[in-house]
Specification:
The structure is a single chain. With 689 residues, the chain is an alpha+beta fold. It folds into 4 domains: 3-126, 2-Layer Sandwich (Beta-Lactamase); 132-250, PAS domain (Beta-Lactamase), CATH 3.30.450; 262-421, Reverse transcriptase/Diguanylate cyclase domain (Alpha-Beta Plaits), CATH 3.30.70.270; 436-688, Alpha-Beta Barrel (TIM Barrel), CATH 3.20.20. It is built from 26 helices and 27 strands. Helix 12 runs antiparallel to helix 13 (353-368), helix 15 (423-444) packs parallel to helix 17 (494-515) and helix 17 packs parallel to helix 19. The termini are far apart.
């Protein structure tokens, strides 16, 4: 047969071999035994070295893999050719970007008819995935070992219930040594009443988190949390249990549960729990036809204690008062604290109001006993409002409201007393509700306006500014001063909207005066605006002022803000920051009615202020009252020494003017200068000057 006839068949066979070789996941190459030139390479082998199946042919082993790599594996090639045996080895072959890569190389000799090697076949498998997986397992086990030693939580491994490994925290938790725990059945560490639960979890092989209890070596029961998992370690299937000591957590939860129902400071029932228990007692009283009395107790002038002695001493006073309340009542009575200095008491098992009065007298007497605070004896008095079930209400909220209303009437009567609820009190509360609605309508109907009272320099009589005073032109009641409605506005938060209206109206007026030239020839002509406590304590109050100035196209230098001493002391922690922000906007900050509050000299030096206004109660007693002279003169000299401007309010006579000016008072305001006037009248008054 002609060999040429076999050529097509060989060609087909070669093509099939090449196709198969190209699609195998291995790299395959054939090198001549003598020249080490490449005789064949599949696609994977060629592309691994950046070549093609054609361009790689004829290149030597060293040309393809490089001289260094060739020299490294030459001993293996020599062994294949000399000993005519296959050789296998692994080699790390990093990628161009440095990524690790491992290959497994098999060198297989191809022998001729005479038994001599004619070529060597190279078969390479990429084993990177296997090596990375092995590395991950080793690293995971190493991390687990480190974690077991480093973590503060107990970790225990067991097989079929018998301990195989345990970390030091677990040993410390139960009081056994490592040697004592290894090989011991895990159920022997479990509290007897919990063995059944733990045994069932082990039987089912569940992976979960649950609470149980273990026994310390000394017999102490320890509540714990188990986190159970099944895992392999060193090729062995084990159960791992993370053991967490939850004694602190359970104690915290119990504390939180207590706090959820009790006041943190006094330990009395809080509002929610008091109301819940009160509702139950009211249902019982309804079934039995019994009488109950709700007492709403508020401490008189308690803020003075906080302001003068600090909140820690104030807390001590509250604690002492709560103990006295509990001590003066029966175990069947409910006592709660609603917050601040407000306490509530529900009296049960009453026959008549006379029984309530006996308790009221007792409470007044025990609370009035001086309380030791800061080494001093302080007298704290209560004002108590009383609402009786079922006469004054059949619902808990209704009784609370009526007792609260009665308490305010008790305060109005002079404090340190009690007041039973009466229907007329409800009528007053209703009147306040109506007034609240009218106030809201007054804002929308533009019924409010500002009056202005002039302020002048003491030495020259030159106009320096004016105080803006709010008035309400009520459609039925006529012109009203703030005394008629401010209390209701403050109680129902309408003061925020009303206060912002005053601020904006003052800013617009200040701008109008400058546009009209009214301020020419006068001093700075600032308009002073009285702030409410609610306004000043509002978060972001300085931002509100800036917004009003921007919207009014007014400058801060045109306005002065007046605050009372009480407002500053009530927020002494944050007041300096707020005052600094206001002054940064250009506004002048003044303390109004100085001498009637509780500002200490230390506070006065710490607060960023510009002016003090002496309360007109002192000025009115001048020049005849020696005591008023001493106090007023001291205030003026102190303020001047601190670099503050001093304004005297309520100046009515030339003698007062002369005396105050002689002491160094710089500005005056009062009837001698001018009474409060509507804007148009004030502007005419200024022009006439």
């Amino acid at each position: 047969m002609n060999p040429a006839d076999d050529a097509p068949a060989r060609s087909v066979e070669a093509a099939r071999f090449k196709l198969l070789a190209d699609y195998l996941p291995a790299w395959i190459a054939l090198y001549d035994a003598k020249t080490q030139a490449c005789l064949f390479a599949n696609r994977g082998y060629a592309e691994a070295f950046g070549l093609t199946e054609q361009s790689i042919l004829g290149k030597t082993f060293a040309d393809i893999i490089g001289p260094e790599a060739s020299a490294l594996i030459q001993p293996a090639v020599d062994k294949v050719l000399s000993e005519r045996v296959p050789v296998s080895y692994e080699r790390e072959l990093p990628e161009a970007d440095g990524t690790p890569r491992w290959i497994e190389v098999h060198l297989i000799p191809q022998l001729g008819d005479d038994g001599e090697p004619v070529a060597s076949c190279v078969l390479i498998n990429d084993i990177t995935k296997h090596r990375l997986a092995e590395r991950a397992v080793r690293e995971s086990e190493a991390r687990l070992d480190k974690f077991m030693q480093a973590t503060v939580e107990g970790i225990l491994f067991h097989k079929d219930g018998y301990t195989t490994d345990v970390n030091p925290p677990c040993c410390e938790l139960v009081g056994y040594s490592f040697e004592e725990m290894i090989g011991r059945h895990v159920l022997s560490f479990i509290a007897p009443d919990e063995v059944g639960k733990v045994k069932e979890v082990m039987r089912l092989g569940r992976e979960l988190r649950y609470e149980t209890a273990v026994m310390h070596k000394d017999g102490t029961r320890i509540p714990v949390e188990f986190i159970v998992r099944t895992m392999e370690r060193d090729g062995e299937k084990l159960r791992m249990t993370i053991v967490r000591d939850i004694r602190d957590r359970l104690a915290s939860e119990a504390r939180i549960q207590h706090l959820a129902h009790h006041d943190a400071l006094t330990g009395l029932l809080n509002r929610a729990s008091f109301m819940d228990r009160m509702a139950l007692l009211m249902k019982r009283a309804e079934r039995r036809g019994e009488m109950l009395a709700l007492l709403f107790i508020d401490l008189d002038n308690f803020k003075r204690v906080n302001d003068s002695l600090g909140h820690l001493e104030g807390d001590q006073v509250l604690t002492t008062v709560s103990e006295r309340l509990v001590g003066a009542l029966r175990g069947s009575d409910l006592v709660g604290r609603f917050g601040g200095d407000e306490f509530v008491v529900l009296l049960t098992d009453l026959e008549s109001r006379a029984d309530v009065i006996v308790v009221l007298e007792a409470l007044l007497s025990v609370v009035e006993v001086p309380v030791k605070a800061d080494g001093r004896a302080l007298s704290v008095t209560p004002s108590i409002g009383v609402a009786v079930y079922p006469d004054d209400g059949r619902q808990a909220d209704e009784l609370i409201q009526h007792a609260d209303t009665a308490m305010y009437r008790a305060k109005a009567r002079g404090r340190a007393t009690y007041q039973f609820f009466e229907p007329s009190l409800a009528e007053t509360a209703y009147a306040d509700l109506v007034l609240e609605a009218e106030l809201a309508q007054g804002l929308t109907r533009n019924e409010f306006e500002l009056f202005f009272q002039p302020q002048v320099e003491a030495t020259t009589g030159q106009l320096s500014g004016a105080e803006a005073l709010l008035r309400w032109r009520h459609p039925q009641r006529g012109l009203l001063s703030p005394d008629s409605f401010i209390f209701v506005a403050e109680r129902h938060r309408l003061m925020l909207a009303l206060g912002e209206w005053v601020l904006r109206e003052a800013a617009l007026t200040a701008r109008r005066w400058r546009e009209q030239g009214l301020t020419q020839g006068h001093g700075p002509m600032r308009i002073a605006v009285n702030l409410s406590r609610m306004q000043f304590h509002l978060d972001g109050f300085a931002d509100t002022v800036k917004r009003v100035l921007d919207e009014s196209h007014a400058k801060g230098q045109w306005l002065e803000l007046e605050l009372t001493e009480r407002m500053l002391i009530d927020d002494i922690e944050h007041a300096p920051t707020t005052l600094a922000q206001l002054r940064a906007l250009g506004l002048t900050v003044s303390v109004d009615d100085f001498g009637t509050g509780y500002t200490s000299l230390a506070h006065l030096t710490e607060l960023p202020l510009d002016k003090l206004k002496i309360d007109q109660g002192f000025v009115a007693r001048l020049p005849d009252d020696v005591g008023a002279q001493a106090i007023t003169r001291a205030i003026v000299q102190m303020a001047v020494g601190l670099g503050l401007t001093v304004t005297a309010e309520g100046v009515r006579t030339a003698a007062q003017w002369q005396l105050l000016a002689g002491w160094g008072c710089q500005q005056f305001q009062g009837e001698l200068v001018g009474s409060p006037m509507p804007a148009a009248e004030f502007e005419a008054w200024v022009r006439a000057r």
